[in-house]
Amino acid sequence: RIMRPDDANIAGNVHGGTILKMIEEAGAIISTRHCNSQAGEPCVAALARVERTDFLSPMCIGEVANVSAEITYTSRHSVEVQVNVMSENILTGAKKLTNKATLWYVPLSLKNVNKVLEVPPIQYTRKEQEDEGKKRYEEQKLDRLETKQRNGDVIFPIINPELHTVGYSQSSLIHLVGPSDCTLLGFVHGGVTMKLMDEVAGIVAARHCKTNIVTASVDAINFHEKIKKGCVITISGRMTFTSNKSMEIEVFVDADPFVDEPRDRYRAVSAFFTYVSLSKEGKPLPVPQLLTETEDEKRRFEEGKGRYLQTKAKRQAQMQQAAQ
Amino acid sequence: RIMRPDDANIAGNVHGGTILKMIEEAGAIISTRHCNSQAGEPCVAALARVERTDFLSPMCIGEVANVSAEITYTSRHSVEVQVNVMSENILTGAKKLTNKATLWYVPLSLKNVNKVLEVPPIQYTRKEQEDEGKKRYEEQKLDRLETKQRNGDVIFPIINPELHTVGYSQSSLIHLVGPSDCTLLGFVHGGVTMKLMDEVAGIVAARHCKTNIVTASVDAINFHEKIKKGCVITISGRMTFTSNKSMEIEVFVDADPFVDEPRDRYRAVSAFFTYVSLSKEGKPLPVPQLLTETEDEKRRFEEGKGRYLQTKAKRQAQMQQAAQ
Amino acid sequence: RIMRPDDANIAGNVHGGTILKMIEEAGAIISTRHCNSQAGEPCVAALARVERTDFLSPMCIGEVANVSAEITYTSRHSVEVQVNVMSENILTGAKKLTNKATLWYVPLSLKNVNKVLEVPPIQYTRKEQEDEGKKRYEEQKLDRLETKQRNGDVIFPIINPELHTVGYSQSSLIHLVGPSDCTLLGFVHGGVTMKLMDEVAGIVAARHCKTNIVTASVDAINFHEKIKKGCVITISGRMTFTSNKSMEIEVFVDADPFVDEPRDRYRAVSAFFTYVSLSKEGKPLPVPQLLTETEDEKRRFEEGKGRYLQTKAKRQAQMQQAAQ
């Protein structure tokens, strides 16, 4: 579809969150269709996980986003979908790869939302495809288990914070979950959640560096808990790490099922977003260094540095592999 | 209501689809109100057909759209509504007629969506009004029957198409039908469908001529099949004909009720849109000629030429009549 | 959240209605949460009244709106909420108070929408807080009773009105209430209604003075009647009074439950909006004087003058108090 002014920031760059939302919608459609392709209980595919994804080139207002999705692996209860987004300037005809993403879905019964159904198997053209898919499946399963145990952290407001400290740029946003945010099952679309997370992360990044910023990448996101229609969700973000030209922001989503359910507020999702600051010509700018004050902030900075160096090393390894 | 940036293209011209959506909403309101004006089963009016409509002058961001609707004929089971759209520049006070449209609705029972209810008759001030209405009613009934038999065509992607061929500009878009797209009965508003059709037709036109384009007219559209909440709809468009200064695009809407219904994908609507290319001063520009390759493309081009010449002849006859 | 192009007028000023909608959403969330904080029947807080509110400084596209809400008083069946809106320019870090508003909510049972539940009492830090709250509660209760008896006026279209008369600028807008406009109970959010009212008032003001206009204040609004999903609402506005630099516009909302309910059209809300006209530099401009023609128009003009002088006197008293 054509990118509209509301999809973009003031500089005309489409929000990463808008692109994530389109990716998730395409993934939900193809996996729901696949899971209903055999006779059996009708179901809706729910997003369980999005793998780490990079935004390769910015998209602008007036461009057309071409989204294509393909099922690349099925386990007994889950579907792996690969989604590609191309941006197309319809006036010049120029096309660019904007994003490649891998998503995992599980089919939930329309009659009983707590029942996970079986996934019809797909046919592989080569045996290696199935083996590689199985390897990816096992890896993500491990990572999902790990993050499930991670402790729930809370962000408190800071009075009169110093410029460039964590407290200075931290932000939060509340949203009342309405019917247009939800699937047929009455749960929030994963893409809607990711769009709100990107919005908060973008506000944190802009507050910190006071320039035009764009989403560079999003780390793997695990959706452990569904969010029901009528909930209030609080999306909070704080900066955890800065390199010379990038900022890492941690974003939490907490759901508050305050009506009609005997349940406390709970952590639904958390993820790391990486942003870069761009000049008017679209070149990356240096970013102000994050000032850490507490022990926790220093620890999170070091952890962020670890993730940054690991990603950098992986990318160099890939480039060397490609060069061979 | 006031036209917003998201209602318009980059040049500031309001999308034809936004106007069609407003027209349909006004028509649905007036005909639903009329059909519920007598004691009896409550009902919702569903769009059955839109007559051919011309976009007489472009509307811009910041202008106010004034929509007025009137019931002009009732048969036993259908209502004819005439809708006029005026654009008003609230700063200068200037008003222009943007669009005149004729729509047909049928009342469906709220309790049983497959039951068409009876329409309370309207009073005519002159006997001729009723006779003319009856003539229009018979004509559209015939045309509806005809298009119902028309064969379902499918658009396949083309690899590496040549510039200005049919394959080069053809486009498609998928949309998951959400609650805000639907009426009280849980079916897609006709106006929502038309807006999406116009969006695809606009992308086809822009890809072909790479300039600012606007909707000039829409041929009669028949809504044979309802589309239910939760469906995925695929809207596909391909160019069928070019005259010196206009492009005709055929648009198909296919619905895929992939959840909760034992039914295959089906063709819900199809229609022809005509676009023109505008210079920065708003003057029509010549358009590149469509290159037809296959026999089918050549046949469709000739059929499009037929429609173009017929419309041109009709318009000249009307102008001569007006001049007498 | 970040203000988008669709939230603002052509001059880039965010619509007062967008701000009112955010205020109401925050109020609905905090009061619904409070009313469900004790074991008992689940409920949704419905807006009963908004106190008079001033727009202190305009907000622009790209700024972040910070909305904070606090419960300041509870009676047996109602909650008073104070909401503050700050606009923040995230590039410069500058913050300004945009709006302060006081809202009253009542908790309606999720199982039976006609049942008003009891509100858990809040703790006051000082006895005076409770007494002042009680005084505000009694005052608003009186005012609510008064407006309930006010007679329903209707706006008729005028043919060929003179420039600057009441008939020249009066406007109306219809809207079909969809699912995304409604709460869990299936009734329109008060904030959605206020946004539409501001849109109509803005069109009236722009038609009258043909310049860039912004909302300066909104008088107390009482929500006597709920509006159900599927209704058609007609929002009508007419100018009642002009001072040298401000315009007062009266806005009515009429609901037409034309489907599924044996009930006539009824007046759901009415309110007075005050607008000012701004130059390109953001300075208030003189406005053309309203030409009153009928006796009713002259009477309404005098009543508007009364409200204007009363507000002016109150503001001067407050400023003197602040100066002491």
TrEMBL record, chains A, B, C:
Q: Name one GO cellular component term.
A: cytosol
The UniProt entry, under InterPro entries, shows: Cytosol_ACT, HOTDOG_ACOT, HotDog_dom_sf, Thioestr_dom
Ranges for region Disordered: 295-324
**CDD domains attached here?**
BFIT_BACH
Respond yes or no to whether keyword Hydrolase is given for this record. yes
Q: Where in the cell is it found?
A: Cytoplasm
Task: Identify the residues that the record assigns to the HotDog ACOT-type domain, covering every copy.
Answer: 1-111, 167-281
What Gene Ontology molecular-function terms does this entry list?
carboxylic ester hydrolase activity; long-chain fatty acyl-CoA hydrolase activity
Residue ranges spanning the membrane: these are none
Q: Could you tell me where the Basic and acidic residues compositional bias lies?
A: 296-306
Q: Catalytic site residues?
A: N9, D198
Q: Which UniProt keywords apply?
A: Cytoplasm, Hydrolase, Lipid metabolism, Repeat, Serine esterase
Respond yes or no to whether keyword Lipid metabolism is given for this record.
yes
- The record's EC number reads 3.1.2.2
Cite the Gene3D superfamilies for this sequence: Hotdog Thioesterase
Q: Which PROSITE patterns match?
A: HOTDOG_ACOT
The processes (GO biological process) annotated in the record are:
acyl-CoA metabolic process; fatty acid catabolic process
Report what the protein is called.
Answer: palmitoyl-CoA hydrolase
According to its UniProt entry, this protein's organism is Neopipo cinnamomea
